[in-house]
Amino acid sequence: GDGCGHTLLTPHSGTLSSKNYPGTYPNHTACRWRLRAPPGTSLLLAFGDVDLEPSERCTRSSVLLADPQAGTAYGPYCRNAVPATPLLVTNSSSVTVLFNSSSHRSGRGLLLSYATSQHPGRGDCPLETPLPGLPGVCFSVYCPAGCKDIEGDIWGNPSQGYRDTSVLCKAAVHAGVVADELGGQVSLSREKGITLYESAFANGLHSKRGSLSEKRLLFHRGIFSCHLPLPACDDTLEVAAFNASSWWHEVDVLGEDQAWVAERAALDSAGHSWAADPSSEAAWLELDLGTRRNVTGIITKGSSNHHDYYVRSYRVSFSRDGKNWKPYRGSSGQEDKVFEGNSDSHGEVFNAFIPPIAARYIR
User: Fold this and answer.
1) Can you tell me whether residue 324 is helix, strand or coil?
2) At residue 126, does pLDDT exceed 50?
3) Helices (H), the chain
4) Tell me: the pLDDT tens digits for 239-255?
5) Residue, of 162 and 124, whose pLDDT is higher
6) What is the pLDDT of residue 217?
7) How many CB atoms lie under 10 A from the CB of residue 262?
8) Which of 117, 200, 289, 327 could form a Cys-Cys staple with 157, CB 3.0–4.6 A?
9) pLDDT digit string (tens) for 13-61?
10) For the chain, what is the domain count?
11) What's the pLDDT band for 122 if we cut at 50, 70, 90?
12) By C-alpha distance, which of 115, 107, 132, 110 is closest to 54?
């Protein structure tokens, strides 16, 4: 319907909003979402925002939830008839959400997320507030699918952590601990804040540069205990050998030859990087890790050595023997995943592999 805004629905969780959210929702629109959970589970709905222009019995604009299995309905809701609690626990695996608007002047509209009874943690990715507790306290929360594009800011990056005023589940996507298209359980701890949070572009999201905060959020991969050391999941893997489809032999202004060979692709190499021959098509760079390893992500950077070179987007394939290759398709498993790369030759861009890749060769 023409009243539908950001929508991402999966069998276990999702996020939806009215059109233009958080700007004013349009006049004379309607939208209908059908939420379905696996049989034997029930839906938990979290109202992130219900800001519809008030009217008697919510006749101008309304949100109505229908539970066909139980034969019950919730609402209608608007600004003068809001839900009694931000979290609605149903006894049904199927709920229909109806949004309607007529002529009105103001209102942000609707923002709603949901999860199944298998994941009873927080489903309110749009409504994150500073978490309660003391420094070092551990949390495990469930982030619904679709939090990447909700309204709200994040400050920080995967390595140093995030300012505690950041939208929690959006920061989890940026950190690469959960895939936005699926959602999932997130483990994090709340630690002492730092003076400055550096911005970064990671997993398709820009974070902001933030000032001092009293607390910060640190995300962790896998299940961990506050009383045990965190597993070393983010160590840089050693590359035994580099290979490439081609490389560029540059003749510089002094007439000297510079070879932009595959070995120059190591991230910390001084000077110029690897570059394919300018006439080549479908260029590739191959990394031999020496043995089969668990690869959780990749960092790319351009070459600012005399040339403003960088890669805007790329695909990844992997192999156990260097002969038979499989394309990486991410958590959806339907199409080859295209990673968003760099927008300049200076900054580093991190992309997570969710699920990780188990292979010796990466291309």
Assistant:
1) coil
2) no
3) 168-175
4) 999 999 999 998 877 88
5) 162
6) 93
7) 20
8) 200
9) 999 999 999 999 999 999 999 999 999 899 999 999 999 999 999 999 9
10) 3
11) very low
12) 107
Q: Which of 178, 196, 170, 204 is nearest to 349 (CA)?
A: 204
pLDDT at 356 over 70: yes
Whether pLDDT at 114 is above 70: yes
Cα within 13 Å of Cα(138), Cβ side? 14
Could you write out the DSSP letters of every residue in 96-142?
A: EEEEEE-S-S---EEEEEEEETT--S---GGG--PPPS-TTEEEEEE
The tens digit of pLDDT for each residue in 197-256 reads 999 999 999 999 999 999 999 998 755 444 444 444 557 899 999 999 999 998 877 888
Claim to verify: residue 23 and residue 107 sit in the same structural domain: yes
Q: Are residues 100 and 158 in the same domain?
A: no
Q: Is the dihedral of CA 222, 224, 228, 234 positive or negative?
A: positive
Nearest to 115 by CA among 65, 60, 44, 175: 44
Cβ-Cβ contacts under 8 Å for 132 (sequence gap 6 or more):
none
Residue 114, strand partner residues: 14, 45
- In whole angstroms, what is the distance from residue 244 CA to residue 221 CA? 32
Instruction: Collect all residues with Cβ–Cβ distance below 8 Å to 54 and sequence separation of at least 6.
Output: 60, 78, 79, 80, 81
For residue 236, being part of any structural domain is answered with no
Let me know whether 105 and 146 are in one domain: no
Q: How far apart are CA 286 and CA 238, in angstroms?
A: 13
Give the domain range for residue 14.
Answer: 4-116
62-76: pLDDT as tens digits: 999 998 878 889 999
Let me know: does 128 contact 167? Beta carbons within 8 Å: yes
In a domain, residue 232? The reply is no
